[in-house]
Amino acid sequence: MNEIKIFSPATVANVACGFDVLGFCLDSVGDDMVIRKTDKKGIHITKIEGFDLPYEAELNVAGVSALAMYEDAKPDCGFEIEIYKNIKPGSGIGSSAASAVGSVFGMNELLGRPYNKTQLTEFAIKGEAIASNCEHADNLAPALFGGFTLVKSITPVQILEIPSPDDLYATIIHPQIEIKTSESRAVLPKKVPLTDAIEQWANLGSLVHALHTSDYNLISNSLNDVIVEPYRSQLIPHFNEVKQAALKNGALGAGISGSGPSIFSLSKSSQVALKVKDAMNKIYSKTGIKFEIHISKINTQGVKII
Amino acid sequence: MNEIKIFSPATVANVACGFDVLGFCLDSVGDDMVIRKTDKKGIHITKIEGFDLPYEAELNVAGVSALAMYEDAKPDCGFEIEIYKNIKPGSGIGSSAASAVGSVFGMNELLGRPYNKTQLTEFAIKGEAIASNCEHADNLAPALFGGFTLVKSITPVQILEIPSPDDLYATIIHPQIEIKTSESRAVLPKKVPLTDAIEQWANLGSLVHALHTSDYNLISNSLNDVIVEPYRSQLIPHFNEVKQAALKNGALGAGISGSGPSIFSLSKSSQVALKVKDAMNKIYSKTGIKFEIHISKINTQGVKII
Fold first, then answer.
1. Which residues of A touch B (CB under 8 A)?
2. Which residues of A touch B206 (CB under 8 A)?
3. Which value does ipTM take for this structure?
4. How far is residue A233 from each of residues A182, A262, A291, B4, B87, measured CA to CA in Å?
5. How does pLDDT run across B113-126, given as a tens digit for each residue?
6. Of A92, A159, B44, B222, which is the most buried if we count CB atoms within 10 A?
7. Residues A149-164: tens digit of each pLDDT
8. Domains (ranges, CATH) in chain B?
9. 0.90 cut: is pTM over it?
């Protein structure tokens, strides 16, 4: 096998109560990538469609993670990477993570899987870091492992795979506005009230328990963010309106996807997720802001060969 | 049935990474109580052995929780309470919680169980509040439900029962010194760094997952407290020495029990718990400070009739 085509999925990080550690994987949105073994040594990005991104491997998220792996594996070949990007950079649903994950997953397959997913996460972190200026894995982990993941730590990389009930669907609205990562970081306080932190970890512990026990009511009760949402939601037009409409239409919960501007909700059943989509659509249709809405089952597989 | 004798267990709250929300129940330490139906109306504490505590129901933890239930149930009888206190007040292993839980559990049994455990928690909170000047349930919940519990919220009371592996044992050393609750609260900061809070909720989420999956290594990796221990451990003589000795002798983790001064550790198997006991004993024997050490299996039943 010298060439494979892969699907690298979009992901939702933070998930209300799990800022910086929790994430889940989407099914219906993601990038396609072709990875090809070549005689010519090195990493070469030969095609990028969808968005305007750098072709130089050292400047491209997929290239940097590929180089990190390439320098470790020292294979007797090179790799070409084609990127068919569907996830808009800066959307808040793991665009850079999908790129970082896709290249290392594909190369690993072509090399006969010398690395496990934890090791692939380590390489992918290097790519993710050039997009966000810091090493984090809350989008990488669900893109690689699928399902819900908890990033226990990144030094060393320790990813926990949290089970989730079968009938869980996400609805995600992506307003086509740009929030600079620097801005979404700047609004966060360096210190938080201990009482708020306690409430947040009660919710996260509770959500992990709820996912293990397929307790939809408890999932719903746990999807609260008292730490980040009060600050970042101000950067997202009509956030509260969208969130309230989602809840009113039966969603278990809603919140900011990653650092925004996308807003996610979780629902029990595709029917409810569809109702939530209609409600979100109605609100944003009036705003004049361009947007996309995705419905997705939780993707338990993660990145895959297609 | 007009009289029952019950065992109301000691408990460990906080459990390193779960400040204010997590707790577990002990088997080998606890108070005995006799609850008796009487024709004479009202709540009457008729005997207290072990420690010097008030006989006036309105001033006694067991009395206050009993009164809260009594006023709700409005039964056609009264109750006498005898308290055989083995858990020293202020020890950090849920002395007041055992009292608060014992009276309402016993009365509920004698009345034919009109209340569930969540409702009993609500009454017991009223008793606990007069001991600690605030409403909390992180000791009450494990005393009532047994095992590991997570207090999702107290308004309304929502307690989650977290499963735990069979071979988990606690070793607890109780230095016979007094730390005032007011002092142990005063040392805590009102605000905490967001990065520390993130580490804490990663650990708590991880511990809940580890308990669900009986992953002893992950239990061990998760038992870290970056929020409270740095402050409160300074109030406990030889804390670090005891903690390090526990870890060196095979404990999965160790930390402050409740607000101290007791120090708990968790071990896989009773043999390791015994080694940890010996190591703790060796350290404290040299200090001149009186102490007690308990080894206990995790008590999955909680308060019970004996």
1. 17-22, 150-153, 158, 160, 162, 188-194, 197-198, 200-209, 212, 218, 221-222, 227
2. 150, 152, 160
3. 0.96
4. 15, 10, 17, 55, 48
5. 999 999 999 999 99
6. A92
7. 999 999 999 999 999 9
8. 3-163 (3.30.230.10), 168-297 (3.30.70.890)
9. yes
